[in-house]
Amino acid sequence: MKTQGEIEAAICKGMTSFEQEYMGRGPKNLQAHLIDDLLVVRLLGVLTVAEQQLVKTLTPEKGRDLLKQVRTHLIETARPTLEVMVQEVTGVKVLSLHHDISTTTGEEIVLFTLAESPLMRERGVK
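^ thats the sequence. predicted structure below, dont judge the formating
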């Protein structure tokens, strides 16, 4: 059984690997927060140079919408992989996944709803 911090650290490691493998590069910063049966992953600095250029060269709405569509499609395609990773780390089935990205700040949020709160041991207890 893991502590909350160990679960969050393992999720960060898994999400970094996912970003590198599927998106071609990792985020500049990544945080995971387990709140009862919700797992919130916040990735900062995820936009590639090509994505930043796309957003700059097209009209703001068109660039934003296109980038969000592509990122959402990539996440949905990789959803089974992400769900397996989260289930292996938390020991709990993933019920749903929600995703959004800001083309302005380069911040990406992935929210997993779990079937229940993971069992955790208290920090300092072995």
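The two ends are 9 Å apart (CA to CA).
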